[in-house]
Design goal:
- By secondary structure, this protein is an alpha/beta fold.
- It is built from 15 helices and eight strands.
- The protein has a six-stranded mixed beta sheet, sandwiched between helices.
- Helix 1 crosses helix 8, helix 5 runs parallel beside helix 11 and helix 11 runs parallel beside helix 13.
- The longest helix has 26 residues.
- It is globular and about 80 Å long.
- The termini are far apart.
- The relative contact order is 0.12.
Length: 380
């Protein structure tokens, strides 16, 4: 065989290989990218490209919802069917894995400019202060071309040419799937199952919560690093979101989501206090803060890992924002220009008390399973 024939054969082999990879990625669709293009495909979970599924659903249903909840993965546990208690609106839960302010702005801009939305409800998770942009973390964290201004054609090609190993692993994956609900929120059933199977004898805390939470405990003994640059970048984007909504007659409501006590100490520092105060100043109105020192946050059974709360915590936040009296002291504080400074002083005092308890007992002042602070006994 002469050189020309060898070259043609080699090129042909390359073309066949490329076509095989593209076909495999399209048929298996390991990130659920292609299925999501219909706008009404809901069989996606946290391991899939949820960002794309969300924006395609919004694109295909511009007049279906009155309001949109935007936030990080914590917000996935907020039931949209209950959000109407706050204002009577019909919501879609647009939670994003590892939510960050650049994405919040991108989704808010698309929603305001392309739907009939009357309101955006933005949950701040506080984790935004440690990572400003998530796109470098991998495919499922990238901002979709539909809202990033990138090339849709290039995006399609990139998903056709993904590592075929991912598609093959997906093809032979027999693990049960827990798909998001059509209204947007996460399916937490596997976490409830694990909790119920390990609730006795502190197994849930010792085997599941403690190993991850211990990585935060070191901040009981030292100061949390400051990051003024990230704080200012997040605040700048919040101003843009606020201006965007004001200019288009869309209501913007911001709240801080509940944090597990074991994770709170990871953020309690001057950068967070500065951020908290600036958010209130930008909004220039009451901002609900559920990231507070309270018995709910001290009960490990209200959280499905140290970074995320169960549905019941989401229900309690909704009821509190809707005006229902809350029986848990300190759960939910309305912050404004007049009280944010004094609330920060209170936080410093409570943090000092927690640190003192930890120094004496080697564990934060967690609440036991029995007691009304275990919300599953109230809402479950």
């Amino acid at each position: 065989m002469n050189a020309k024939k060898w070259t043609l054969a080699f090129v042909g082999l390359i073309v066949v290989a490329i076509l095989a990879i593209m076909t495999l990625n399209y048929v298996v669709d390991p990130y659920k990218y292609f299925a999501s293009q219909s706008g009404d495909y809901y069989d996606v979970d946290a391991d899939d490209y949820v960002r794309e599924q969300k924006i395609e659903h919004i694109k295909k249903n511009p007049d279906k919802y009155d309001a949109y909840l935007i936030g990080g993965s914590k917000a996935g546990a907020i039931k949209t069917e209950n959000l109407s208690r706050i204002d009577g609106y019909n919501y879609y839960n647009c939670w994003l894995l590892s939510g960050n302010f650049p994405d919040y702005l991108a989704y808010a801009k698309y929603i305001v400019e392309n739907t009939s939305a009357k309101k955006i409800l933005l949950q701040i998770s506080t984790s935004e202060l440690y990572e400003f942009n998530r796109t470098e973390k991998g495919t499922i964290y990238e901002t979709p071309a539909e809202i990033s201004g990138g090339s849709k054609f290039a995006e399609v090609i990139s998903f056709l040419m993904k590592n075929p190993k991912i598609a093959l692993e997906e093809l032979f994956d027999s693990e049960p799937k827990y798909y998001n609900k059509p209204s947007g929120e996460r399916n937490l059933q596997k976490y409830y199952d694990y909790l119920n199977a390990n609730i006795e004898g502190y197994r849930y805390y010792l085997w599941y919560m403690k190993p991850e939470a211990e990585s935060y405990y070191k901040y009981m003994d030292k100061e949390v690093p400051e990051d003024t640059e990230t704080v200012n970048a997040c605040i700048d984007i919040l101003r843009q979101i606020k201006q965007l909504c004001d200019d288009n007659g869309v209501e913007l409501q911001v709240f801080f989501g509940s944090l597990f006590a074991g994770q709170m100490v990871y953020y309690e520092g001057e950068s967070f206090y500065d951020f908290l105060e600036q958010v209130v100043m930008v909004m220039d109105e009451d901002v609900w803060c559920f990231n507070t020192y309270n018995d709910v946050a001290l009960c490990v059974y209200n959280y499905y890992n140290p970074a995320h709360y169960f549905y019941e915590v989401g229900d309690l936040m909704i009821d509190t924002m809707a005006g229902k009296p809350c029986q848990y002291e300190g759960f939910g504080v309305k912050l404004n220009r007049e009280n944010v400074g004094s609330e920060i002083v209170k936080r410093r005092k409570k943090l000092a008390e927690w640190k003192e308890f930890y120094k004496k007992n080697g564990i934060p002042p967690y609440k036991p399973m029995e007691g009304n602070w275990n919300l599953k006994k109230i809402y479950g």
